Amino acid sequence: MIELRGISVTFNPGTVNAVRALREIDLRLDEGELVTVVGSNGAGKSTLLNVVAGVRLPDAGRVSIAGRDVTREPEHRRAALVGRVFQNPLDGTAATMRVEENLAVALRRGQRRGFARGVGEDRRRLFRAALEPLGMGLEQRLAAPVGLLSGGQRQALTLLMATLAQPRVLLLDEHTAALDPAAAAEIEALTIRLQAEQGLTTLMVTHNMQQALRVGSRTLMLHQGEIALDLSGEERRGMTVDVLVRRFQQARHQELVDDELLLTR
Amino acid sequence: MNLWVGAIALGLAFGAMALGVYITFRVLTFPDLTVDGSFPLGAAVAAILIVRGWEPWLTLPVAVAAGAAAGAVTAFLNSRFGINGLLAGILVSLGLWTVNLRVMEDRSNVPLLAVDTILTPLRPLVAEPNVRAVVLFGALLLGLALALNWLLHTDLGLALRATGDTERMVRAQGIDADRMRLLGLALANGITALSGAFVAQYQAFADVGMGLGMIVAGLASVIIGETLIRPRGVLMAIVAVILGSVAYRLVIAAALYIGLGPTDMRLVTSVIVIVALSAPRLRGALGVRGLAMGTARA
């Protein structure tokens, strides 16, 4: 469960470059819900994920994950609750380290890291069992440096690393956008499977409107730091990409009208 | 003959320092210049304690602690105050010059003549001083290399290595990257100070100027080692660094052998590093294949 209340984030406050990235966002995701997030560049999608992840602490409002108030906790403190996958497959894995070493780093997320051996036979067995269902043959390549893997393989590994230590929420930041269509489809299927298996409360940012409506049970549209649209249930089932785009344009037009009123006043 | 054995002994004594540079530059990808100050710090601490009558072996942990503290200060300046990493190291090593003079009781040189060092107990076993140093420093470096290899494969070591690789991933995996850099710099400079303590006891003096250009010697060792063997994996990389340190001292010895003077050594060092760094492209230009270099990350 994720709960955001009155979240505001302003970049460069007090300067001419001040940008209100999020404006008093109220949002509640139920346990196990997969929610997709769309919006244009600068709408606040990434900032929203960063606030949940703790990369960016909000200027106002409260954040709670699985009932725990994490508003002031930095990223690494709340990492036990949060699994993340980035757009760039290179960001989620360490290229110079082996597949098994990357997984070992992920396995200890949220726990103290001491002088225990990073990769032993017990852990290797665990990693093989976790890699096998990916169907990529990575269970045969535990000792390979991650830098030798393809983008799709690295993203699959990142996804596995995000969920290995059983977080409560999963944050996906356009995680299929940098992949070729075949790999993107594979990663999308894997995402849905892992999310369902672990019942992870998930926020998935995407630029792809079709994907936004296809995946999950609820879709948010962000616009200028606000939730312009919150679709679920019947309304979402009947929604097409065309209608969604029209709604999107309406929202933007609304903004223009507001500006005009302001100017003529 | 003695010249070459002496060079190997120096290569092993300085090898610990080269491992320190490997930890910062390669494992953490943090260009730490504290080395120029933490190396003579270790030498000064060991020398002054020995002169005061300490058991030589007991001075080593004190030297390590002093070096670790210096490295921690550099990391702290970088993470807490946002001072550029290179500059933080320069500032700390600048300040250490004064600290080192103070440690040496305001003398620029502390001779270790007519006192026992860690090399003394071996005297009855190995007559030749240089061979004695090769045996002792070789054994110590072997132990250090194995310990470092072990550490870099623990959960903590994996976190250190990941921090130098992909910081975004590291933070997402719940690792405090600043803390890792603090630990890593403390470790690296502790080892560097240990190397200073070795060299002071081998050369039988500590000098305030002995850290000058140390970082270049350390980098030269790392790069030469990577050029000689293309290391895959941590253990190979550690072996490469030690080999590189010995090779570097042998080249210096060769330069002395053909008649160059001690004043020429800086230019020699500079040329060695330039050659090692350009080796991949030179090889490519010469059409030598199958020797892709591990210096790509340099």
What are the SSEs and their pairings?
The complex is a heterodimer of chains A (265) and B (298).
Chain A: E1 2-11, E2 19-29, E3 34-38, H1 45-53, E4 60-65, E5 68-69, E6 82-85, H2 99-107, H3 121-131, H4 151-164, E7 169-173, H5 181-198, E8 201-205, H6 209-214, E9 218-223, E10 226-232, H7 233-237, H8 241-264
Parallel strand pairs in A: 3-8, 3-9, 6-7, 7-8
Antiparallel strand pairs in A: 1-2, 1-4, 4-5, 9-10
Helix pairs in contact in A: 2-4, 4-5
Chain B: H1 2-27, H2 35-51, H3 56-81, H4 85-103, E1 109-111, H5 129-151, H6 155-165, H7 167-172, H8 177-203, E2 205-207, H9 214-228, H10 234-257, H11 265-286
Helix pairs in contact in B: 1-5, 1-8, 1-9, 1-10, 2-3, 2-4, 2-8, 3-4, 3-8, 5-10, 9-10, 9-11, 10-11
Please provide a brief summary of the model.
The complex is a heterodimer of chains A (about 260) and B (about 300). Chain A is an alpha/beta fold. Chain A is about 35% helix and about 25% strand.
Task: Write structural notes for this entry.
The complex is a heterodimer of chains A (265) and B (298). Chain A has 265 residues and is α/β, with parallel strands linked by helices. Among the domains of chain A are: 1-42 and 55-75, no CATH class; 79-198, P-loop containing nucleotide triphosphate hydrolases (Rossmann fold), CATH 3.40.50. Chain A contains 8 helices and 10 strands. Chain A has a 6-stranded mixed sheet with strand order 6-7-8-3-9-10, with helices on both faces. In chain A, strands 2-1-4-5 form a 4-stranded antiparallel sheet, covered by helices on one side. Chain A starts with a strand and ends with a helix. With 298 residues, chain B is mainly alpha-helical. In chain B, 72% of the residues lie in helices and 2% in strands. Chain B has helices spanning 2-27, 35-51, 56-81, 85-103, 129-151, 155-165, 167-172, 177-203, 214-228, 234-257, 265-286; strands spanning 109-111, 205-207. A two-stranded antiparallel ribbon of chain B has the order 1-2. Chain B is globular. The A-B interface holds A 53, 55, 75-77, 79-80, 82-84, 86, 90-97, 101-102, 104-106, 108-110, 113-119, 158, 161-162 and B 151, 153-159, 161-162, 165-166, 168-177.
